[in-house]
Design goal:
Distance between the termini: 56 Å
Radius of gyration: 23 Å
CATH topology of the largest domain: Spore Coat Polysaccharide Biosynthesis Protein SpsA, Chain A
CATH superfamily of the largest domain: Spore Coat Polysaccharide Biosynthesis Protein SpsA, Chain A
Strand order of the largest sheet: 3-2-1-4-7-6-8-5
CATH architecture of the largest domain: Alpha-Beta Complex
CATH class of the largest domain: Alpha Beta
Shape: elongated
Structural class: alpha/beta
Number of helices: 12
Length: 365
């Protein structure tokens, strides 16, 4: 039985040190029926020269190779050009600084061929902090394995994505091409284009998770997607887009997305409390540990009192204000208070508050 054709699309920008290892990882795939489409997005270094050096070898390995050296238009534009030009049944988009393990494409294709009710497959991998072109097994640390940082699921994962979207194993994903033909392409107005795509596609298509290690995501000084200046404005832009298009199925989904922005902001940078609309509300700080001590200098309002789950601290004082059990806030009119989460346990705290009618950014942050 002939293997389905897989179209691998690479967007490259200023990755002269990484493009050749990336291409070699694709050449080393055990799956043979692959076409390769490469878009050099106006690189100012030797990325173009390095790709040209490899072209003849690439043409011998793949059933079709298309290389476009073009002006800078962004990764979403490149992926869309590639998808529309692709003739494969399956689509794999990939960045030019990352690596595929040899069995990656075969495992992904086989899984979707055997499970026709699934249209998107993804798997496990490693984050590697390295500027070295060569990545060896010594670089792979279990604490940076995708599945040790986030547990993944199969099936209808739309709601699940709202809980873990920035931790999606983007570097492993394989799509049936029909997903793009039926449901649209990457949004070229967004810098976090992959997160938007997964949310849109997960409304219609089932995702299949493989436990196999499929890819290595290289983290280095030029990873724009990890920069707060890129990710947070893009997520805010996604929120605006979803509000305008009535994307959220209900307020619960919208609230989940707001919490996702909150968690991402707290993970990447110090929270800008000045942007919160507290007005004349009573400010209550949840937590009296290191998170509060390290961030209290950034809080622009007077704290009225603290709450904490640690019974030992109850009715003692922190910075001159009394510490109460967490149930204390249930005695308050929630519309007249604002709860600041001064703890690392933001998921647990936000779930507790949500269950009692508090709304993120309106009643707590």
């Amino acid at each position: 039985m002939k293997e389905p054709l897989v179209s691998i699309i690479i967007s490259a920008y200023n990755h002269e040190n990484f493009i050749l290892p990336c291409l070699e990882s694709i050449m080393n795939q055990t799956y043979s029926n692959i076409e390769l489409l490469i878009y050099n997005d106006g690189s100012k270094d030797n990325t173009h020269t390095n790709i040209q050096m490899k072209l003849e070898e690439l043409q011998q390995r793949f059933v079709r190779v298309e290389y476009v050296n073009k002006e800078n238009e962004g990764i979403s534009r490149n992926f869309n050009l590639g998808i529309k030009s692709a003739i494969g049944e399956y689509i794999k988009t990939f960045a030019s600084d990352d690596l595929l393990l040899p069995n990656a494409i075969k495992l992904l294709v086989d899984s979707l061929e055997k499970n026709r009710d699934y249209d998107i497959a993804y798997g496990d991998g490693y984050h590697v902090y390295s500027d070295s072109p060569e990545i060896t097994s010594e670089h792979l640390e279990e604490k940076y394995r995708f599945s040790n940082l986030q547990k993944y699921e199969s099936g209808n994962i739309h709601r699940f994505l709202f809980k873990m979207l920035p931790k999606m194993s983007t570097w492993t994903v394989l799509f049936r091409k029909k997903c793009f033909e039926e449901s649209g392409y990457y949004d070229e107005d967004l810098l976090c284009e992959d997160m938007d795509l997964y949310l849109r596609f997960s409304k219609k298509y089932k995702f299949l998770y493989l436990k196999d290690v499929l890819a290595i995501h290289r983290i280095h000084g030029n990873n724009a997607g990890l920069m707060p200046s890129v990710m947070l404005p893009s997520m805010e832009k996604m929120l605006k887009k979803y509000d305008e298009t009535h994307f959220f199925e209900n307020e619960t989904y919208r609230n989940d997305f707001l919490k996702l922005i909150l968690f991402t902001e707290r993970a990447l940078i110090e929270v800008n409390y000045e942007n919160l609309k507290v007005d004349n509300k009573k400010v209550i700080a949840w937590g009296t540990g290191n998170y509060y001590k390290n961030n209290k200098k950034n809080i622009p309002w007077k704290i009225d009192y603290f709450i904490d789950s640690d019974e030992v601290k109850h009715y003692q004082k922190m910075d001159g204000k009394k510490i109460y059990p967490i149930q204390k806030i249930l005695e308050e009119d929630k519309e007249s208070i604002f709860v600041l989460m001064m703890s690392g346990a933001v998921i647990e705290i936000s779930d507790w508050l949500d269950a009692r009618g508090f709304v993120v950014k309106k009643n707590y942050y």
